[in-house]
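agent> fetching stored inputs for the cobalt (II) ion docking request
agent> found them:
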Amino acid sequence: MIGRLNHVAIAVKDLDAAVASYRDMLGAKVSPALPQPEHGVTVVFIELPNTKIELLHPLGADSPIAKFLERNADGGMHHVCYEVDDIIAARDKLKAGGARILGNGEPKIGAHGKPVLFLHPKDFDGTLVELEQA
Ligand code: CO
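agent> prediction call returned; pasting tokens
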């Protein structure tokens, strides 16, 4: 069911420092910072030949990334995003199999303008999984 790895998201406490590390030390192609108030994050996209890395930094008072950074003071891997051909069919199959969908279970429009869902980390080996409509 899952297809390409769309991105790996990393929560960072200092966005400028993280951008400098990827751009200057790792030599990666790095996008400008993109505020996404509806998701409570500022995102920087790092384009790799086979996938993307997203640097996530808290934006606003109740950002989900702020809580993550309280528990992980140095930052760290936040989620992985897999592409699926049909996000509704994928959701229904997962629910039927007992997996928990976060939020109200309905897809939201994600960072790339496509519908996304998040799956409970306890159901996937402690990893927050995002599904994105391909
Ligand atoms: Co994501």
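agent> quick read of the result: The chain has one domain: 2-133.
agent> awaiting further instructions
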